[in-house]
Please model this.
Amino acid sequence: MRGFIHILENVFKYLILFLLKMICLGIESTAHTFGAGIVDSEKRVLANIKDSFTTEKGGIVPAKAADHHVEVCDKVINEALETAKLSIKDIDLISFSQAPGIGHCLRIGAFAARSLAMFHNIPIIGVNHCIAHLSIGEMLTGATDPVLLYASGANTQIIAYEGKKYRVFGESLDMGVGNFLDSFARYIGLGFPGGPKIYELALKGKKFIELPYSVKGMDVSFGGLLTNLKQKFDSGKYRVEDLCYSLQETVFAMLVEVSERAMAHCGKNELLLGGGVACNKRLQEMAKEMCKERSAKCFIPENEFLVDNGAMIAWQGILEYSAGKRMSIEESVILPYQRVDEVVVNWKD
Ligand code: ATP
Ligand code: FE2
Model:
């Protein structure tokens, strides 16, 4: 009987969603990107606009990134509405990145979302950014139950849905892989973001240089590798192209190894990539190769959905709202340190 009621509830939920054709504006601001995406409940991405804080020297200074977000937030949101050919009155739901991220930056997105929600009387919902990466990947690629290799600036995690929760099966014990790439790039004078520049140099690399390979159980770490690379660079004995090439081969092998073990552990045969570092063609190649060897599928969304973006926040908002989650303005506080397994998952069977 309970099973039958559950099925009825689900049918009812999807019927409501189908009839409502909800349109959601999603606001992203966990780190250096301020994004606004508009998605409807029929899985159409109507707009996905972003503006990212960049510097020639140094990394992300939280206060400066937040100033950037304050400066661009109006422009980005208006451009999203214009692209979607909608006015704010057409928006049925506003979602925002509530967690995790840099407090200074999260606060700007939450403030923008709250202001719009209160002024225009639109429901608001805060979502977890890491889970949003996974959900938009599923929505766009058709993956149904993947292991997510989430490789971005601040985050490096292997996430999968198990036992009614999203769980982290492996992660970086120190910095995120993107921060590692950016730190080395900064050290050798390439500026920020460094990932794409390291990739270009790596293409010209010929010689593999042995580097510390740091996988500990299901986790990885990059601190020792960074020190080692800096020493090698300072010694002047190595071509920078060879260092970049060897760096990529080493860190991506580490990431692919732990992803494969998480897939084996969970008995899942889908791998999904997410995060800015996943734009890297060499990482994509290695991930595909691993999946091919174990007859698994590898799903890679387009770059605009791999990096931080508003569309994924909008889609996550639709999923949670249509499954019954509601949030008051008082509850819409930022949660910079929330982990994925703290999220109550109400939108999956
Ligand atoms: P999060 O809040 O999820 O940690 P983030 O602010 O780090 O996000 P992302 O856009 O997901 O933002 O990722 C940015 C990172 O991706 C940077 O470290 C950048 O160097 C890296 N990156 C971007 N393109 C490439 C590429 N082609 N190869 C390697 N790294 C890349
Ligand atoms: Fe991200």
Summary: The mean pLDDT is 94.
